[in-house]
Amino acid sequence: MLRHLLTTVRHRSTTALYNHHYRHLYRSASYKHPKTPTPPSPPKPPKAPQKPQTFTFHDVTWEDPYSWMSSLQDKVAMRHMDMYMEQEEKYTEAVMSDTERLQTKLQSEMASRLDFDLSTPPLRWGPWLYYRRVEEGKQYPVLCRRLASLNDEFISHKSPSAGFDFTSGKRIEQKLLDYNQEAERFGGYAYEELSEISPDHKFLAYTMYDKDNDYFKLSVRNLNSGALCSKPNANRVSNLAWIKDGQALLYVITDENRRPHRIYCSMIGSTEEDVLLLEEQDETVYVNIRHTKDFHFVTVNTFSPTSSKVFLINAADPFSGMTLVWESEGIVHCILEHHQGYLYLFTDAAKDGHVVDSHYLLCSPVDCPSNPRIWESVFIDDQDLIIEDVDFSNSRLVLITREGRNFGICSVALPLLGRKQAVYLRELNPHFLPLPKNVCKISPGPNYDFYSTTMRFTISSPVMPDAVVDYDLSNGKWNIVQQQNILHERTRILYGTALSSAIAEKSTNVKNSSTNDVKSEDDNLWNDLSEFYACEHYDVSSYDGTVVPLTIVYSCKNRKDKQSPGLLHGHGAFGEILDKQWRSELKSLLDRGWIVAYADVRGGGGGGKKWHHDGRGTKKQNSIRDYISCAKYLVEKEIVQENKLAAWGYSAGGLLVASAINCSPELFRAAVLKVPFLDATNTLLYPILPLTAVDYEEFGYPGDIDDFHAIRKFSPYDNIQKDVLYPSVLVSSSFNTRFGVWEAAKWVARVREQTIYDPKHPILLNLMTDIVEENRYLQCKESALETAFLLKAMES
């Protein structure tokens, strides 16, 4: 348009130009400019109906205007709930409508980073290699196996093609279970909780989730014929254990409140009824079973708020009764193993009446004549070298250790005979295996083969995709058998290949050491991303002087000095270590200059039992104040720009973050709460979904007056500030979560009711579909929504 005007002007005379300009000025005196269009008014949030109900407990009375949302048996209330959920869904869509292109871009980014090869690395057990693979165009995997003798150089399920070896003329792959067919059995949904192959490799026992009935159903399949066995055919199954070399199966069923309480024995191939071995009638006692790795025994663990016990069943003679081998007061963690006539117990129970801060290993001969049984300590307690976990093979004991924040894996030879007293672990000259930098978690693999010298572990780091590693304990060699290569957007599966052999060759050059600071000579072998993403650790002083570990991750290229937005993760519950492993969806934030931080607050793991206990129950405020201290540290040290800090919490971490927002709403610009625990008072007092003794141990028993007042104080729903501006919050929940969707809906409604309304600080409720966890592309869609929400909140 401008070019056209200039061209026209050049062809006019000066007089004509003057007259034109004069007439234009004259006309403009009466000309009215068009009005600037009024921007559309922001969508208004829905208002939930209020139906106040009064509650009184321990002489405390409170009113809940939204308690009707959890009245699942009230059909009228549920119709209102459905209508309200529709309004919330439309409101979230309206608020986020201006980010649709951004969401599409983010989803594309995240989907491009997904593993295209979903097959698992083969796991050797006896003569077989077991693995899962996904066939093209199918949603669920297929469980397969091959004889290792026919395929020593197994690389992936694609070689030989379709499991047929044209050289030998043999079909070497056997399909054991197609989960796509299982989905047809269970209404289009295939979610497996338990899966156990019998020690003779003839049967597969597994449980599938029956969505219509909301329980797990047990099936046993004959691996030779592929047919389902007629029995056992039980519902509400929570545990399995093979006995009698695979001729029989023990299983545990739950009651209507999902409490495991009965143990049955089923003889495979028999037409007789399954035999009831144990029924625990005390409603506070929970039952759990597992077989020892050598399949000689089955351990029966029972626990309640007052005691924990371990019984032993002879796997060769399950009807000979149960023998009590260990007991302790209160709920404690205890795992029992058997090795060549000795029982090994790994526990965190009190010692001599004194609470311990970490796990320890005990030993006792199977045929111990004394009653009660005498247990001897294997290692002397060493606070400089904490034992976090153990695993047994026939020839080696493997220990996952921690020195401060540094994790390690070491092994010592078995049997540990000829030692009459406990020793320091270092005195046994443990062989420490090589690890990459910044390890934040080590997870033992299935390791079914008790007689193998190779053990599998998954190594996690904030700046490295998870590496599945096989360690040969006999010679120290190690292979990365699976790891996603983010830089090339692919996954490598290595097994018997030249590359893994090269890795093993280099690893043998690493000298044996008595500490866990063993590093590979070539960190690139680990596919470490530290060249592009930095990981730093800080010590943050909390309100009472306690030092709280804080980890931050950022892009070396895209970080904006003193101007970076940040996202702070927290959990702080059940003694669980905060998940700091590399997550490819966070790459979209990192590459946009964000800081991703992790606060290891009290109540979580990694600091011993005291660290956990100092952040639970009546001490839950410690977790919340630790998290706030870490948030303030990020801003005050200018790691994150002021007013550009977001919070993120999942499940019990949602309680942590929501409570922190209640205390310091001005500290956060935005927050994402995923399936959060928000209505602690009502959930613990009047549980709609069954709770366990562990839940009450963690958050408190409302019947205890001190616990009750502590719950009232940290419950996010009961402590929302009035007439204060809250940050933007996205709450994601679904109807198929442990903490019901009503918790999220009630919290959202009350925050809108009590706080200052600002359309630039929306409180959104996002309802996820039930199948998100099973569909990776739906996961990308949800992650894209969360990321777009955070980016929008920072720019508003």
From TrEMBL:
Its EC number is 3.4.21.-. Residues 583-754 form the Peptidase S9 prolyl oligopeptidase catalytic domain. InterPro entries: AB_hydrolase_fold, Pept_S9A_N, Peptidase_S9_cat, Peptidase_S9A, Serine_Peptidase_S9A. Residues 36-49 have a biased composition (Pro residues). One of its GO terms (biological process) is proteolysis. Keywords: Hydrolase, Protease, Serine protease. Residues 46-484 form the Peptidase S9A N-terminal domain. Residues 29-53 are annotated as: Disordered. GO terms for molecular function: serine-type endopeptidase activity. Serine peptidase whose precise substrate specificity remains unclear. Does not cleave peptides after a arginine or lysine residue. Regulates trans-Golgi network morphology and sorting by regulating the membrane binding of the AP-1 complex. May play a role in the regulation of synaptic vesicle exocytosis. Belongs to the peptidase S9A family. This is Prolyl endopeptidase. It comes from Theobroma cacao (Cacao).
